[in-house]
Amino acid sequence: MKPNTQQLNDLTIQVRRDILRMVHAVNSGHPGGSLGCTEFLVALYQNIMERKEGFDMDGIGEDLFFLSNGHISPVFYSVLARSGYFPVAELATFRLINTRLQGHPTTHDGLPGVRMASGSLGQGLSVGIGAAQAKKLNNDKHLVYTLHGDGELQEGQNWEAIMYASAKKVDNLIATVDLNGKQIDGTTDEVLCMGSIKAKFEAFDWDVLEITEGNNIEAIIAGMNEAKSRTGKGKPVCVLLHTEMGNGVDYMMYSHAWHGKAPNDAQLENALAQNYNTGGNSDY
User: Fold this and answer.
1) What is the pLDDT of residue 186?
2) In which region does residue 61 sit, left (phi positive, over 0), alpha (psi from -120 to 50) or beta (all else)?
3) Would you say 225 and 47 are in contact if contact means Cβ atoms under 8 Å apart?
4) Who's near 93: CB < 8 A, 6+ residues apart?
5) Is 258 within 8 Å of 252 (Cβ atoms)?
6) If DSSP states are collapsed to H, E and C, what string results for the chain?
7) pLDDT of residue 280
8) Strands 173-179 and 144-149
9) What is the pLDDT of residue 150?
10) How many Å apart are CA 72 and CA 42, to the nearest integer?
11) For position 210, what pLDDT does the model report?
12) What CA–CA distance (Å, rounded) separates 270 from 247?
């Protein structure tokens, strides 16, 4: 049985606590984008995706997810652990020497749930397309999901992949763009204005929909279910997810400043107080 909305919101609070404690412990990491995508990844793994028990790299007979903007690894690791892929206690090893939980996800240490290394930006869509085409060859009807930063679209082979996916009718793919309008050096408009991302994807013949409340669990579930309903119709699907960087921590929101900066002791205490745990989950 899938968790209800209250349970998902409670888990979201716990994941936020995990993110904050992980980056604080090593004074390193990327809390801003992680907090902005918390509701999305909680909803994806707990409600949207069809997942098997256990983990194997082939992923046959289940939906697959590829994180392209790998610097938001804190939220990815927390959701994977809280979804049963590896022990929650392992979150305490984030970014330590010889950890499986490196700053950007890698595959060589065999961390369950991680299907691609994503330290270098701009590559995840290409990997997702390959996996989606493999599913078609294997007559596997399950879907492939990818997540990208909006600033990430400024680089890498993104647009080659976007062109390829529509030309080859990769219609079992749902690519979500975290549209928070911020990146490490400022707003996306200031760094390299991309104009209308929706218009660009549509010009490349994708089916595009928007989730305007990208930090609302119910809106995310409704929007992603709509996206699922549009698969299998000859076009890849793009979801533009409007989020707020640093969501859930008032002093991190509405700024790019916390893209890659860890809170100090007092700031951590403040942030955790804003995300007190009432749902029965516990810190690692």
Assistant:
1) 94
2) left
3) no
4) 99, 100, 101
5) yes
6) CCCCHHHHHHHHHHHHHHHHHHHHHHCCCCHHHHHHCHHHHHHHHHHHCCCCCCCCCCCCCCCEEEECCHHHHHHHHHHHHHCCCCCHHHHHHCCCCCCCCCCCCCCCCCCCCCCCCCCCCCCHHHHHHHHHHHHHHCCCCCCEEEEEECHHHHCCCHHHHHHHHHHCCCCCEEEEEEECCEECCEEHHHHHCCCCHHHHHHHCCCEEEEECCCCCHHHHHHHHHHHHHCCCCCCCEEEEEECCCCCCCCCCCCCCCCCCCCCCHHHHHHHHHHCCCCCCCCCC
7) 79
8) parallel
9) 97
10) 14
11) 98
12) 14
Percent of the chain with pLDDT over 70: 100
pTM score > 0.90 for this model? yes
Rounded to whole angstroms, the Cα distance separating 173 from 220 reads 17
Tell me the two tokens of residue 172. Answer: 């079992």
| Regions of the chain with pLDDT less than 70 | none
Q: b/e map of 122-134 (b: 16 or more CB within 10 Å)?
A: bbbbbbbbebbbe
Total number of residues shown for the chain: 284
Tell me the average pLDDT of the chain.
Answer: 97
Distance separating alpha carbons of residues 6 and 279, to the nearest angstrom: 8
Which pLDDT belongs to residue 242?
98
Q: In whole angstroms, what is the distance from residue 11 CA to residue 101 CA?
A: 20
- Residue 16: the pLDDT is 98
- Residues 87-126: tens digit of each pLDDT: 999 999 999 999 999 999 999 999 999 999 998 999 999 9
